[in-house]
């Protein structure tokens, strides 16, 4: 099979839909070349070769010949020869995986230079300084990436040289200076590796290819893939491409751009460039880049000239490329370009990463402009990213002590304590503290800290700097390039205009305004109208699954309704039992030794419980409300603190010692498998009777008051045996008819059960005979199917994931292979024996986009999730239905 694919002005072998084989970069370079855009010629070695290399350490047969042929094509296209001392071809060697992994893997530029070809380059460019600067950069990059020499070795040598010669800036060094440094750099290589710097370009090329393939398995790439759920076995492609130079003088430049604003989604050409600069200089954030358009220049109040002003004809060409790429890809693109002596070259295009707000705006705009359909728009926004839009933003009325301003690199507001290293960010956040990571600039080594932080601040770098790109991808608010900040990592502090912020001091950042603020600023609710509402309306029209919420407090229920919930799928009544007005009565009830003893406190709890339901029914008027009768082990309610013991003792007329003895007796060895769920209803029916009475009285109250009907759905937890449900259904029906008779009214209701034990799934047919509905309680079902405690999994789950034993945490995303089989079986058998049975899910998985796809496939009627996940579930359900 073919392993190497050429691209260039005449004859390109790849296409954009071959990204699995060619990686994103290779596939899109090929596509751009086919579109007739100015792409320097090159070739891509496929990801299949990487897989082979990772496995065996070697290369498949025939690869050297294919590479030689492809290189010959590049030579003839460019009109230069690899290794030719007079007219050398130079190439870049870059990784490019099927999924974008910004900055994660390695790149070598200027490859092909050696002691001879450097003179050829100097003659060709008529610029000796440029040639030797390129050569020393090559040795540096090659030394670092390919030979594994710490890059600080080279930097120290350079700094020392500058000091000795009284230079401040790299630009002050002459060709002779670079020549002298090159000798030093070569010596460093020899000292470190025991071998001279390789002079043979062919050898350089293969070593670089090796290194790029090897970089697929480096630690930060492995971590990035784990965080972004990218399979470890995909492999990267290697792109070898003729070099073009953005650093040959003032008519040269290099830059990156987005075809629309990646932060707001506005239909404006957005980008940055550096004149006379090479390769990664823009992304590295070392010099402050200049805007592309005069519009952006004015908007950001920049005094640096725009590309539109300094190179108008290049700008016009680039603008044409923008139009061409957007209409071809029908999506916002992120592009890289280089200008060599006034000529524009395109080095990359890919679908641009964007904030949730931008994703929404772009999708809605593109539908309005007839570029994409509503259902394409719905497919383009990642459900999880909506989370960014649902959270509070800074209160515009609140006082803000702004201590620094930077670029609005990623929107959202966050407050936390300032930390100055990624490791510290991770440490403190693991200890439960919200942190804001403040760095001079970030690099791929900071990823774990950025992930742990609530927000990110950098002192250097633009909108396309590493910090900005990664923060947007992660949905973290970010202020980039706040130039006034002086960050002192050693002393753990930063200083701005005389104000010192030490590690542990609280700051707030506003990523949409680009502000760093002292202290914690109050927040306000997000805006859910406009584009958001339009977009969610499309999702609602497309989806088939209903979306309910898990809520028991009026506030959660209200939030959920605002977010579009169509009822309550799980009201955990035990949460109500912990309220301060009744917890003592609850404890008294539990500690009582007889039914008689329980009835007293239950009678006191009942009116409070009734009021709880009245509140919920009012808020959920017209929607179904599923109320689960008491579920947790009684053990959980036992008093532990001395003060609580006293209080209960007093209320119950017992001594503290009696209370303590009774509590000890009720303590269970394995409470999650103990006296809980419907077992409580079987042993202490008076508890469930009280709850059912409260529910039906509340329903009658609200019906009388508002005329609106409510549909209570009474749910029995943790059923394993059909007989349990049969008995408890009898209890519900009996109490319901008593209340209805008493109130002289009729209330439509349902009785059902949770399917949260494997046995219940296996005997769903028998259980369904007594149920109007099933709700899959996949939290307990996962716990009991795996035999892994949901409360204790955190100590070993990360190891299981990093060793690839489990690809995702089964308590977050449904284990479709195993637990999913139980759900399928429960649904199928339940329906078979009771065709009228309705089915839903209320475990945490009800708000997880992948699991929602599974629910659609299993033809459940609804998913139920926590209020903040309701919009996510609406969108995920729509995507699952498309
Ligand atoms: C479940 O087990 O999935 C469930 C929803 O119930 P809880 O989380 O309250 O145990
Ligand atoms: Mg449960």
Automatic annotation (TrEMBL):
Reactions accelerated catalytically: pyruvate + phosphate + ATP = phosphoenolpyruvate + AMP + diphosphate + H(+)
Domain Pyruvate phosphate dikinase AMP/ATP-binding per the UniProt entry, residue ranges: 63-300, 316-366
Positions of the catalytic residues: 466 (tele-phosphohistidine intermediate), 842 (proton donor)
EC number(s) given by UniProt: 2.7.9.1
Binding site for substrate: 572, 628, 756, 777-780
Recorded superkingdom: Bacteria
Sequence ranges assigned to domain PEP-utilising enzyme C-terminal in this UniProt record: 529-880
Transmembrane segments: none
Signal peptide: none
PEP-utilising enzyme mobile domain mapped to chain residues: 434-514
Binding site for Mg(2+): 756, 780
Keyword annotations from UniProtKB, A to Z: ATP-binding, Kinase, Magnesium, Metal-binding, Nucleotide-binding, Pyruvate, Transferase
Cofactor(s) this protein requires: Mg(2+)
Primary role: Catalyzes the reversible phosphorylation of pyruvate and phosphate.
Family statement drawn from the similarity comment of this UniProt entry: Belongs to the PEP-utilizing enzyme family.
Protein name, UniProt field: Pyruvate, phosphate dikinase
Organism: Limimonas halophila
Taxon lineage: Bacteria, Pseudomonadati, Pseudomonadota, Alphaproteobacteria, Rhodospirillales
């Amino acid at each position: 099979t073919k392993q190497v694919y050429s691209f260039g002005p005449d004859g390109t072998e790849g296409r954009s839909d071959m990204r699995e084989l060619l990686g994103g970069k290779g596939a899109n370079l090929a596509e751009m070349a086919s579109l007739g855009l100015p792409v320097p010629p090159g070739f891509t070695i496929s990801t299949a070769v990487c897989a082979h290399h990772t496995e065996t350490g070697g290369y498949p047969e025939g690869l050297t010949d294919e590479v030689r042929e492809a290189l010959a094509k590049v030579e003839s296209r460019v009109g230069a020869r690899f290794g030719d001392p007079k007219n050398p071809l130079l190439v870049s060697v870059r990784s490019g995986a099927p999924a974008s992994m910004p900055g994660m893997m390695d790149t070598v530029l200027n490859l092909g230079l050696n002691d001879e070809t450097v003179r050829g380059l100097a003659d060709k460019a008529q610029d000796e300084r440029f040639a030797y600067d390129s050569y020393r950069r090559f040795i540096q990059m090659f030394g670092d990436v390919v030979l594994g020499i710490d890059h600080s070795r080279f930097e120290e040598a350079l700094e020392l040289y500058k000091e000795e010669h009284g230079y401040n800036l790299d630009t002050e060094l002459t060709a002779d200076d670079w020549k002298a440094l090159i000798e030093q750099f070569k010596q460093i290589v020899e000292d470190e590796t025991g071998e001279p710097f390789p002079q043979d370009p062919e050898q350089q090329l293969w070593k670089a290819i090796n290194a790029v393939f090897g970089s697929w398995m480096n630690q930060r790439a492995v971590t990035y893939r784990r965080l972004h759920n990218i399979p470890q076995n995909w492999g990267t492609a290697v792109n070898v491409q003729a070099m073009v130079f953005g650093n040959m003088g003032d008519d040269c430049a290099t830059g990156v751009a987005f075809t629309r604003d990646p932060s707001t989604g506005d239909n404006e050409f957005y980008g940055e460039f550096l004149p006379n600069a090479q390769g990664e200089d823009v992304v590295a954030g070392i010099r402050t880049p200049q805007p592309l358009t005069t519009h952006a220049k004015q908007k950001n109040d920049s005094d640096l000239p725009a590309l539109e002003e300094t190179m108008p004809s290049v700008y016009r060409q680039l603008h044409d490329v923008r139009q061409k790429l957007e209409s071809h890809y029908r999506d916002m693109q992120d592009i890289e370009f280089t200008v060599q002596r006034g000529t524009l070259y395109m080095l990359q295009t890919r679908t641009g990463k964007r904030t949730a707000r931008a994703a929404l705006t772009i999708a809605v705009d593109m539908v309005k402009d007839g570029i994409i359909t509503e259902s394409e728009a719905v497919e383009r926004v990642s459900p999880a990213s909506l989370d960014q839009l649902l959270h509070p933003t800074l209160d515009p009325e609140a006082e803000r002590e702004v201590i620094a301003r930077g670029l609005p690199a990623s929107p959202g507001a966050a407050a936390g304590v300032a930390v100055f290293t990624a490791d510290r960010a991770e440490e403190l956040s693991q200890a439960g503290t919200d942190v804001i990571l403040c760095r001079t600039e970030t690099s791929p080594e900071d990823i774990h800290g950025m992930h742990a932080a609530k927000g990110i601040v950098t002192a250097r770098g633009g909108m396309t700097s590493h910090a900005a790109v990664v923060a947007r991808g992660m949905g973290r608010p970010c202020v980039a390039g706040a130039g006034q900040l002086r960050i002192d990592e050693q002393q753990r502090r930063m200083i701005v205009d005389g104000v010192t912020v030490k590690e542990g001091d609280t700051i707030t950042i506003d990523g949409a305004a680009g502000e760093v603020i002292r202290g914690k600023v109050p927040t306000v609710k997000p805006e859910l109208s406009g584009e958001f509402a339009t977009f969610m309306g499309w999702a609602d029209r497309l989806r088939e699954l209903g979306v309910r919420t898990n809520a028991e407090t009026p506030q959660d229920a209200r939030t959920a309704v605002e977010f579009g919930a169509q009822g309550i799928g799980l009201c955990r009544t035990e949460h109500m039992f912990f309220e301060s007005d009744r917890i003592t009565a609850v404890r008294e009830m539990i500690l009582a030794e007889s039914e008689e003893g329980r009835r007293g406190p239950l009678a006191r709890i009942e009116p409070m419980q009734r009021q709880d339901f009245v509140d919920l029914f009012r808020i959920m008027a017209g929607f179904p409300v599923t109320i689960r009768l008491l579920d947790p082990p009684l053990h959980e309610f036992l008093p532990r603190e001395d003060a609580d013991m006293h209080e209960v003792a007093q209320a119950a007329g017992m001594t503290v010692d009696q209370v303590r003895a009774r509590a000890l007796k009720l303590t269970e060895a394995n409470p999650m498998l103990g006296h809980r769920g419907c077992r409580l209803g079987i042993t202490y029916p008076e508890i469930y009777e009280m709850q059912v009475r409260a529910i039906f009285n509340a329903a009658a109250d609200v019906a009388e008051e508002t005329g609106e009907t409510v549909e209570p759905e009474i749910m029995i937890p943790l059923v394993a045996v059909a007989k349990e449900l049969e008995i408890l259904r009898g209890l519900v029906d009996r109490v319901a008819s008593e209340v209805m008779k008493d109130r002289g009214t009729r209330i439509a209701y349902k009785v059902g059960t949770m399917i949260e034990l494997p046995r219940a799934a296996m005997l769903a047919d028998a259980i369904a005979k007594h149920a109007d509905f099933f709700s899959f309680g996949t939290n307990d079902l996962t716990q009991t199917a795996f035999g892994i405690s949901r409360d204790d999994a955190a100590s070993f789950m990360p190891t299981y994931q990093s060793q690839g034993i489990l690809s995702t945490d089964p308590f977050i995303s449904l284990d479709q292979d195993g637990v999913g089989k139980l759900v399928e079986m429960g649904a199928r058998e339940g329906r078979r024996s009771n065709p009228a049975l309705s089915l839903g899910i209320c475990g945490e998985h009800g708000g997880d986009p992948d699991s929602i796809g599974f629910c659609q496939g299993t033809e459940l009627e609804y998913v139920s999730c926590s209020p903040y996940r309701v919009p996510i579930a609406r969108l995920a359900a729509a995507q699952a239905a498309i």
